[in-house]
Design a protein that fits this description.
This protein is an alpha+beta fold. It is 32% helix and 24% strand. Strand 27 and strand 28 form a beta hairpin. The chain binds beta-D-glucopyranose.
Length: 769
């Protein structure tokens, strides 16, 4: 846990501020200042070009390329991966004065500042450029991505000459020529490009997957057109002259419309896509830069009204958690068909833009309580990719559906066979997500229509992937890898078995409820999915006989059969220079002892918290925590939540220490690769489920708030049962009310209350069962 903060950005409750230009830190800042609106994302790179280290990252959700590796002779191995591809740079600019090109790597500048306003979603960058001949120009760049209509974005440049009058040349275009960072190749073919007096458009197609991105923009401002830009065959653009007057601000603006087409999982045809492109430019006529900026800020205001977490007395975490909430909404809000939450969101190319079990396990709760439509849409991704999961099951000699451990289109993209073949938790996470969603929203219709087909196939996989022990007394999963990726091929991993059992029980429960409430249609379901009583009985039987390794005496779940007897490693004695371990220890050495990467037993104790006594949680927490090295950023928050539950407040706060500022303080020293989007979701859980003590896995929404010593107070909102509940906590206790005055039933410290528009205030209680 020896992580050290790289304190760099200015602390401010609503802004991320960088003062002064530090080329060494520029790639980290590029990630931090990423903008996104689920549809597209763009890193905080310098649009005017920069010859220093930079990742010109411009991404579209669901637009990916494919790479084929050598085919393995072994069945079930993955040799084709798909990765989010770097796309059109729609912010492309070049700025010249007297033939001198602005490039922050070589140009002389002063008063550099970047500001990301979390409240409005607007990102600005300003500095004074001092040319070789001593001309001083103040430049301010501004950009935003529209939240109302995610195809739209704006860019503005304000230019103020401080000590001269004269011309500045601006080249502005749309650029498909950038390479993908991982592959180091440009992966686009150009289909079309065109310019008019004050506009341009471009259409690119990915070389392998033949997906399309169309981009067009309309320029406006104090400039005159000089001609077309001829920088490279994959760029289209215009050259403009702006005649500057000393002390006067001149403006250059553009509104951009981007349209993507990924072929799969989208209800529109290629023809429809082309006709959208045809009208795109003319549709920009109806928009105005400032109007779009304002309406986008309005979207953010409404979002903050129901999503903000306010922390009093802790400026660092205040800024940190707002940054996390901002990034969650930027990454995903459930509008775009086929969109996913990549482990790095739309902010970088690490993890290839792939989505993991993190989505249902860590991200879904945020959406269930902040944007239920998005939660549903996330689950729809798994419904839409069910056929792929069925194909994958066949490849792995299973029946039903085996969901991929890492994916962008629904296909398995993880080339590490031990993860791709042995980890069942992506599949059980889908069932868990459905269950959690239904448990909170009571949306049975969704479960009946979309959940049942997924649950049936998941249950089939569980009934075929597992096996009976030698004397057929219990059922379990052999040769698996649980969430703790440091135990490679184990038998009866407790998490896998527990989730397997819960999934089978939930599937049977949903089908039973369906039979009771829609008896006339039940047989149709049986017929449609070829379900027989024998198959259902078998699911029941394996659930009943599922082996859950547990030491009754010590009340400790055994992470897998034999875990208790593994050689012990004192993780506190591992030199900090050995971290991250996977770079310093051989792969097999990591697997040979009782050291764990991230919560495994503790994970299911958190997910199904209501089923376990505080005593059991405490005993397991005390056993597993000293063995965990938290090599995954998903780990500390779960420990923090459980530590709060068992009254270890100081430890809980220590674990929380870097949750909200993982990227702002570059704790893992890899923020330059992109943000840790799913651990950002864990930071939200850390406050709401941790200190707020919320639990959403029981029959009723529960809270057991506490307050970290350092904080004067905090508040958060969760949207639930048709209203938004506001929870305000200070040193004297917690108060609850609904924002629109609806009556909502909740439990606080195990007692039931009906809350409404009037605040009810309750003192703190610490419950030891
Ligand atoms: C973790 C996985 C996680 C993945 C993506 C890995 O380091 O061990 O649990 O799914 O990162 O976040």
């Amino acid at each position: 846990m020896a992580k050290i903060a790289d304190k760099y950005f200015v602390t401010d409750p609503w802004n991320i501020i960088e003062e002064g230009f530090n080329p060494e830190y520029s790639s980290v800042s590029e990630s931090i200042f990423s903008l996104g609106n689920e549809y597209m994302g763009v890193r905080g790179y310098f649009e005017e070009g920069y010859s220093g280290k930079s990742l010109i990252g411009s991404y579209f959700n669901g637009i990916y390329e494919r790479q084929e590796g050598e085919r393995s002779a072994y069945k079930g191995m993955v040799n084709i991966t798909e990765f989010m591809v770097n796309s059109v740079n729609w912010l492309y600019l070049r700025i010249k004065i007297d033939d001198e090109i602005l490039d922050l790597s070589n140009s002389k500048i002063k008063d550099f500042k970047r500001v990301l306003n979390l409240y409005t979603g607007v990102f600005t960058r300003s500095f004074v450029w001092i040319t070789k001949s001593g001309k001083e120009i103040f430049l301010e760049f501004e950009r935003y991505l529209c939240m109302m209509d995610a195809h739209l974005a704006g860019q503005k440049l304000e230019i103020k000459p401080l000590n001269f009058s004269g011309d500045i040349i601006i080249e502005a275009g749309l650029d498909f020529s950038n390479p993908h960072e991982m592959v180091r190749e440009n992966l686009w073919n150009l289909e079309d490009k065109k310019t008019d007096e004050l506009s341009c458009r471009i259409l690119g197609s990915t070389i392998g997957t033949k997906q399309k991105v169309f981009s067009c923009c309309k320029f406006s401002g104090d400039m005159t057109t000089m001609g077309d830009l001829k920088a490279s065959s994959k760029i289209v653009g215009k050259i403009f002259r702006v005649s500057l007057q000393e002390g006067k601000v001149s403006t250059f603006k553009r509104i951009v419309k981007n349209i993507s087409w990924n072929g799969a999982r989208q209800s529109r045809s290629l023809c429809e896509f082309y006709s959208e492109c045809e009208t795109a430019l003319s549709s920009l006529e109806e928009y105005d830069y400032e109007f779009l900026k304002k309406s986008s800020a309005e979207w953010w205001k409404n979002t903050w009204d129901i999503s903000d977490i306010e922390i009093k007395g802790d400026e660092l975490n205040q800024q940190g958690i707002r940054y996390c909430i901002f990034q969650m909404h930027q990454t995903y809000h459930g509008v775009q068909e086929g969109a996913v939450i990549g482990a790095k969101g739309l902010t970088g190319e690490a993890y290839s833009g792939n989505t993991f079990w993190d989505t249902e396990t860590y991200c879904l709760p945020f959406y269930i309580f902040n944007n239920v439509k998005a939660a549903k849409q996330l689950l729809m991704f798994r419904y839409d990719t069910l056929e792929e999961a069925k194909k994958r099951a066949k490849e792995l000699d299973c029946e039903g559906a085996f969901y991929p451990i890492a994916t962008i289109s629904g296909k398995e993209c993880c080339t590490l066979w031990q993860h791709a073949s042995l980890q069942l938790q992506a599949t059980t996470a889908v069932a868990y997500g459905l269950w959690h969603y239904e448990n909170v929203t009571k949306d049975k219709e969704f479960i009946y229509t979309y959940g049942i087909p997924m649950l049936i196939e998941i249950a089939r996989m569980l009934a075929s992937r597992g096996d009976w022990n030698n004397d057929r007394t219990y059922y379990g999963y052999y040769g698996v890898m649980g969430p703790d990726e440091f135990q490679m091929m184990v038998n009866n991993n407790c998490y896998t078995n527990y989730l397997g059992k819960e999934t089978l029980d939930y599937t049977l429960q949903v089908l039973n409820q369906y039979r009771e409430t829609r008896p006339d249609n039940y047989d149709n379901i049986l017929e449609k999915y070829n379900l027989t009583k024998t198959e259902l009985d078998y699911w029941q039987k394996i659930s009943e006989k599922m082996f859950i390794p547990y030491d009754e005496e010590r009340k400790i779940y055994e992470q897998h059969e034999g875990f208790f007897h593994l050689p012990h490693v004192d993780v506190d004695k591992i030199p900090t220079t050995d971290f991250p371990l996977y770079h310093h220890w051989t792969y097999d050495r990591i697997y040979r002892n009782d050291m764990i990467k991230q919560p495994d037993v503790l994970m299911f104790l958190f997910l199904y918290n209501d089923r376990f006594s505080t005593d059991v949680i405490k005993k397991n927490y005390e056993y597993y925590t000293p063995r965990c090295i938290h090599e995954s950023s998903l780990s500390p928050s779960v420990h923090s939540i459980l530590a709060t539950q068992i009254g270890k407040d100081k430890v809980a706060y220590d674990f929380f220490g870097f949750a909200t500022r993982m990227d702002l303080d570059n704790y893992n020293r890899n923020t330059h690769e992109g943000l840790h989007t799913t651990s950002i979701a864990a930071a939200w859980m850390n406050i709401v489920y941790g200190f707020g003590g919320m639990r959403s896995d029981g029959k009723m929404l529960k809270f057991a708030p506490s307050i970290p010593d350092k904080w004067e107070g905090y508040s958060f909102c969760v949207t639930y049962a048709g209203d938004t509940i506001k929870v305000l906590i200070d040193k004297s206790g917690a108060s609850f009310h609904t924002l629109n005055g609806t009556n909502v039933k909740i439990k606080v410290y195990q007692k039931e209350y009906t809350i409404n528009g009037n605040e009810i205030k309750l003192p703190f209680v610490f419950e030891e069962e």
